[in-house]
Design goal:
The chain is an alpha/beta fold. 35% of the residues lie in helices and 25% in strands. The chain is built from six helices and nine strands; from the N terminus they run βαβαβαβαβαββαββ. The chain is globular and about 50 Å long. It binds 5-O-phosphono-beta-D-ribofuranosylamine. 5-O-phosphono-beta-D-ribofuranosylamine (GRF) binds next to helix 1 and strand 5. The site of 5-O-phosphono-beta-D-ribofuranosylamine has 12 residues, from helix 1 and strand 5.
Length: 211
């Protein structure tokens, strides 16, 4: 089996990228290799994490482009040059254009810090997700890894994990718990399953093949 080239798109701190790099160092990303990190923000801390792990970093600065289309075109060109087999959105802040999503159908994976279809879609990003979870009063939240479709947070679900909401939680405390207990485990696991060709998509359903 050819090693799949994984390109991770980031915009910020990159703790999910770190989880992927650490999993790779432990030999847990089977059949794939993180070959590049592309940031939409110059100076993102995620780029330092990449450099430290010896992974090349690129910047496609969203603010340098007038439209989403122009930004997306530049991104697409870079991904073609990198021969990406799998694109992982790890705290990437921008919604990709339908043309982009079509080009990489079922080859783009995103992590969302809630149990989709709850607390997702337009406006649900970062700490806002956890604020809304606390406001609503649900007792369980979690994280979801899914394939990206043209609509935000609506693509086929690969893995989910529940995390309890506890008395006295602040959005920051809950965010941290969701990351530690769910996000940092689920994302490397989903990436490894993809790289082993164990995921198949039938409509909305993702089947996971046994080893
Ligand atoms: C995470 O909560 C992730 O689920 C969401 O954005 C956040 C990124 O954090 N999509 P980091 O940059 O990986 O630390």
């Amino acid at each position: 089996m050819n090693m799949k080239k994984i390109v991770v798109l980031v915009s910020g701190g990159g703790t999910n990228l770190q989880a992927l790099l650490d999993a790779q160092a432990r030999g847990e990303i089977i059949g794939g290799e993180i070959t590049a990190v592309v940031s939409s923000t110059p100076g993102a801390f995620a780029l330092e994490r990449a450099a430290k792990a010896g992974v090349e970093g690129h910047v496609i600065n969203r603010k340098a482009y007038e439209s989403r289309e122009a930004f997306t075109d530049a991104l697409l060109q870079t991904l073609e040059e990198l021969h990406a087999d799998l694109i992982v959105l790890a705290g990437f802040l921008y919604i990709l254009s339908p043309a982009f999503v079509d080009r990489y159908e079922n080859r783009i994976i995103n992590i969302h810090p809630a149990l989709i279809p709850s607390f997702c879609g337009d406006g649900y990003y970062g700490l806002k997700v956890h604020e809304k979870v606390l406001e609503y009063g649900v007792k369980l939240t979690g994280a979801t890894v899914h394939f990206v479709s043209a609509e935000a947070d609506a693509g086929p679900i690969i893995l989910q994990k529940a995390v309890p909401v506890e008395e006295g939680d602040t959005p920051e405390i809950l965010q941290r718990r969701v990351m530690e207990q769910a996000e940092w485990k689920l994302l490397p696991e989903a990436v490894s399953l993809f790289c082993q060709d164990r995921l198949s998509v039938e409509g909305r359903i993702v089947h996971i093949a046994e080893k």
